[in-house]
């Protein structure tokens, strides 16, 4: 399965969330609302989630293994950095 599109929408207000991303797989399946978060150890992604009845947040779409999560995160963060560079050039 290949990631065929990554769309980054930067968040303009202050806070830990820096962007919201949509990724497309094989030009056939899209996952919206992946968040780019600034954490203590740097940027990371948070998969789309919703609040359960017990108050906990649960991912509603996520990779099954760490290799896939790492590949998705690496590509998303690369695209986010590219978006920052384009903005800085403007």
TrEMBL record:
A Pfam family recorded for this sequence: SpoVG
Entry's Gene Ontology BP terms: division septum assembly; sporulation resulting in formation of a cellular spore
Domain of life where this protein originates: Bacteria
InterPro entries reported for this sequence: SpoVG (IPR007170), SpoVG_sf (IPR036751)
Keywords: Cell cycle, Cell division, Septation
HAMAP family tied to this protein: SpoVG (MF_00819)
Homology family: Belongs to the SpoVG family.
Protein purpose: Could be involved in septation.
Name of this chain's protein: Putative septation protein SpoVG
Encoding gene (name): spoVG
